[in-house]
Amino acid sequence: MKIYVPLDSAAVALGADALVTAITSEAARRGVAVEVVRNGSRGMIWLEPLVEVASAAGRLGFGPMTLADVPGLFGDLTTHPKAIGLVEDHPWMRGQTRLTFARVGVVDPLSLDDYRAHGGLVGLDRAKSMTKAQIVTEVTDSGLRGRGGAGFPTGIKWRTVSEAAADQKYIVCNADEGDSATFADRMLMEGDPFTLIEGMAIAGLACGATKGYVYIRSEYPVAIRVMSQAVTIARAAGVLGAAFDMEIRVGAGAYVCGEETSLLNSLEGKRGVVRAKPPLPALQGFMGRPTVVNNVISLASVPVIMAKGAQHYRDFGLGRSRGTIPLQIAGNVKHGGLYECAFGLTLGQIVNDIGGGTASGRPVKAVQVGGPLGAWFPPSLFDTPFGYEEFAGKDGLIGHAGLTIADDTIDMLTMARFAMEFCAIESCGKCTPCRIGSTRGVETLDRLARGDSSAMPILTDLCNTMKLGSLCALGGFTPYPVMSAITHFPDDFARAKEAAE
Amino acid sequence: MLDSDAYTDRVAEILEAHRGLEGPLLPILHAIQHAFGHVPDSAIPQIAAALTLSKAEVHGVVSFYHDFRDAPAGKHVIKLCRAESCQTMGADAVAERIKKALGVDWHGTTADGRVTLEPVFCLGLCACGPAAMVDGRLVGRVDESLVAEVAK
Ligand SMILES: Cc1cc2nc3c(=O)[nH]c(=O)nc-3n(C[C@H](O)[C@H](O)[C@H](O)COP(=O)(O)O)c2cc1C
Ligand code: FES
Question: What is the CATH topology of the domain spanning A112-313?
């Protein structure tokens, strides 16, 4: 019997490890031989821990599993109370276009044979037969834009590094994923680490870089473990080596280290303070050398682009947002998890049709898109299609494609205050608008909360100063959640005033 | 408790093990914290000398990052997520109840030295919040029963 129990952090946080122990001892008790595979998560977090049993027809899913449900796995599976049928046939899975996440949840993350059997290394093999310029062109033609937040075209960044002359160049993967509502990087690294390794190796070929680093936040112990093991395996198998090798580095709990120049300082062993640009990291990055800094999902999307061709990838999407995007649906939501699809679904489709509305069953009041620096959207903007320009057009951003769904018990003044407080806690301190503005922002929102409406123009002015005067998007974008809360939910700011009067 | 020679020897070993890395300071600090539970002040001159940095530079790095502590934590460390997705699932209320049960505020350690409570901003468990990390172990959909579990 072959049983899959995810090693994914979310599955583990909901009890997957204890299930493995229970399954092995139940099997021993019954004298049944079982092979337990620790796979990644399929992304249906509300069904985690989702256990799968291999059958002639395909993989049967059971979730959310509890210890009491374990003995039933050895009986009649069709009547198991947690049976969801064939996992591949689940509507949530069928609706997706899984390009980057094709193997996540399917394969054994640490089996290179499994990786090859599911199309792994085809992209790298193809890249090896191409010139640097050809690889860069392929990535540019795919339309892939950075998935870390800023949406900068990946191929153009690579070209700059590729054409720069230097004795040493670097590929740095940004796995700092600090935004609330985001876990795509984590799921990819835990569920299919070789895809990231392959993507970085291709980037190395394209840019003439022989060394790579993955900077993973310390809050991700499972991802750190799986990636480290995968690098060792890839090195032993010769996938990594003289032509391109890489190291895993661990962050130390600073949100701002997700900003690329701060990340580079941190990698160099310095305080994670943001650097002024220029010089661009592409020309003077890690150790002052030309460096590609890319998000996990940007790099992990390259193998499929190289394997299936730029055209295949760019045929998906909307406007200037090409390909697929792994939506991370989180917060107060019935069906939360990771859903990869072409750009272009509307926000309402994502929240209501895919997410199924709130977990509490109460009405959706607001959705924050793009993490702590993203705007809050009211249901009246649910017709906004998911794309970079489309969200920018509504004074928002898609960021790393995380969505926090909130029901009508949320107070938007509280959330605006939190945005300022978070900025104050995480500011690197280099620029004044962010360092001091965020603290003044908290105080000003406290005045509003006390019913002092004369604080409103000051807050608006402060937000403008932070927007225009900050060195990076931490101070620069914190006004998004604040101003969107004020614009779309004025009642929550007026209520405080009424209460005071 | 290690005596000061043992400290010095252990730090020296860690420094030796990280020779040849590009930008070795963060890996070194993580290893030191792993070994001692915190980054002792006494290690700073030794690290500085090995990396040809000033003591102020090393101190500046240690103090920049939330992860590094200059004093040992309690026996158990509870990190509770305070970020937006977890807030929508009631993380604030859970945090208040846990603070009350422990009798500490954020960053505080209980009087008996058993539990340290810390905020964390996202553990990547945003679709199964409120989330926590207890002594490095991840927990989803937490409530205040976490305290009783840790006290066991
Ligand atoms: C405060 C702040 C935090 C950021 N955090 C991340 C992060 O966690 N992961 C990430 O990939 N990009 C993050 N970014 C964006 C990076 O600066 C950079 O744009 C990105 O790593 C480039 O990779 P990409 O082009 O593949 O998206 C952050 C930016 C800012 C200003
Ligand atoms: S917001 Fe709490 S785990 Fe992500």
Answer: Rossmann fold (3.40.50)
